[in-house]
Design a protein that fits this description.
Serine Threonine Protein Phosphatase 5, Tetratricopeptide repeat; about 400 residues
């Protein structure tokens, strides 16, 4: 059980960087735990946080023996955390760790919350436990970042600097750790060390506005005003929409503190697959799917007022719907899903099925599908999407388990 849990722990943060959509919240009397979790996440995407919290509270009551209950506690804690309710978040992270003493992401987040609440000794202890459990560099980097923050608050500056340095070694793009380390050097008047640190980071990637703000602060402290102004100007150029709140002048920059709390912010994932199959490809896919299902003795019909790639099916035992999807590549082992795809699958209870088609060839000249191309590579009448298969930046899932596909 613990090995399975540790595998899921690696992806727990991804769950919050990705499965978000819109759905109608409601009672989970007839839901499975997974469907209830989806409903909560979908409600949260719509901005209905109260419904998301309510759905999970109902899940806790109805499914107290749910195998992945620790993750649901974690999800509930993240909702409270994102709204600044740190005490409530801490309670949920505690429950997640009680349910699974090896829940890596829960320790990382509890480390952060304890640090924010001033429970620095506990934050350091949580950081140590997270380091014991970490198996991925980025997880280690996050644990070291927050542990360093708490050690700094405990006036253990030397130890904090070591943790921030290690965080940057493990994840060179860890901007909060860079900020903390540069600020620590500046507070100790080690300006040349701070300058070397930020300029080394800029050599690796100079298209981050916040780095140029840090660069400008260090240059200003060294009284190199022309270079500081140039760095600040570069920061403004990289932030045309003013998302980073870049100071308008060196005088304004001088008022900005360099050492600040380094929050761990997660951003909702957005689908990156905007290209839609051609009408000819869609028609060919429906033709292949319909023939395949009918060969299995299943009656097939279209559903009114719903996308054409959603088919209604009926056999001797049941009626169900199946979503037809095309793989982007012949050898792909995962498929991209749009926001609408996710909604269509999870809004039904039990979830709708999936039929995946590959090897559909298109004539580059005419744009028409080639005869005899395309085959069914996976089919299941009811597919429960695994939220831990979601990547951080795109809706892409492992293929559903094939069901007697020839």
């Amino acid at each position: 059980m613990l090995n399975k849990r540790r595998l899921c722990n690696r992806c727990a943060w991804l769950l919050w960087l990705g499965i978000l959509a819109t759905a109608v919240p409601g009672c989970i009397d007839n839901d499975t735990p997974l469907v209830a979790r989806h409903r909560a996440m979908l409600a949260e995407r719509r901005g209905d946080y109260e419904s998301a919290l309510k759905i999970r509270d109902e899940l806790f009551q109805k499914f107290p023996d749910y195998y992945y209950l620790a993750e649901v506690y974690f999800e509930q804690g993240m909702t409270y955390f994102d709204h600044g309710q740190h005490e409530q978040a801490l309670e949920l992270f505690n429950r997640a760790i009680e349910a699974d003493p090896e829940f890596l992401q829960a320790f990382i987040r509890r480390c952060q919350v304890n640090s924010l609440l001033g429970n620095h000794a506990q934050a350091v202890a949580d950081g140590n436990r997270a380091l014991e459990l970490s198996v991925e560099d980025r997880n280690l980097a996050l644990a070291l970042l927050h542990q360093g923050n708490s050690q700094a608050a405990l006036h253990q500056t030397a130890r904090a600097k070591v943790k921030w340095q290690l965080s940057l070694i493990l994840d060179a793009d860890q901007l909060p750790a860079l900020n903390q380390l540069v600020a620590a050097h500046m507070e100790e008047a080690n300006l040349e060390e701070a300058l070397l640190l930020i300029e080394t980071s800029l050599q690796r990637n100079d298209r981050v506005a916040r780095k140029h703000v840090l660069h400008s602060q260090v240059l200003l402290a060294l009284n190199r005003r022309e270079e500081a102004e140039a760095a600040l100007q570069r920061a403004r150029e990289l932030d045309p929409e003013e998302n980073e709140n870049v100071p308008a002048s060196l005088d304004e920059l001088a008022l900005v503190p360099t050492l600040e709390t380094a929050p761990m912010v997660h951003v909702a994932a957005r689908p990156v697959y905007d290209d839609q199959p051609t009408p000819a490809a869609n028609a060919r896919a429906l033709e292949i799917a319909t023939r395949y299902l009918r060969d299995k003795g299943i009656e097939v019909s279209a559903l009114p007022n719903l996308p054409p790639n959603l088919l209604h099916c009926k056999d001797a035992q049941q009626e169900f719907d199946v979503l037809i999807k095309l793989l982007p590549g012949d050898q792909a082992d995962s498929l991209p899903l749009s926001q609408q795809d996710l909604e269509l699958v999870t809004e039904s209870n039990p979830p709708r099925g999936m039929l995946v088609i590959s090897e559909l060839k298109i004539d580059p000249v005419s744009g028409e599908t080639l005869p005899n191309s395309g085959r069914v590579v996976a089919y299941t009448p009811s597919w429960r999407p695994d939220p831990f298969r979601l990547t951080a930046t795109e809706f892409e899932y492992r293929l559903p388990t094939p069901e007697s596909v020839e």
